[in-house]
Amino acid sequence: MGEHHIMINEGTEQFISSSRVIRHPQYDSWNIDNDIMLIKLSSPATLNSYVRPVSLPTRCAAAGTMCRVSGWGNTMSSVDDGDKLQCLEIPILSDSDCDYAYPGMITDAMFCAGYLEGGKDSCQVCLFTDWIASTIANY
After folding, report:
1. Strands ordered across the beta sheet of 86-91
2. Which EC class, in a word (predicted)?
């Protein structure tokens, strides 16, 4: 946690091992349905300006709502910044736009976000991609 550039130790990072990893019981690796996991930390994170919890929404966002995606990896526009955290604001798509873009591939456990013309989506930030909330639950 607290990572910005994955190849440089910036002094803001916290490395905490997991004590438990819980994969969704209906996860399907073939179609990536229910692609979500809980990770329990072996010790609490120290909250500061680099590490803080993400607020979870109280309901699903409507089509057209802008959301932030972030992660590390190469982008189409800049392969040199693949080791630095990338962020992008993208809209949630309607179910009909989703079905049009990915016919027969989207299940009830999924939603689509991005631009129909392509080029700006979480697939352009291809490694360790976070969606709306990447929350660490301390329980």
Report:
1. 86-91, 66-72, 127-130
2. hydrolase
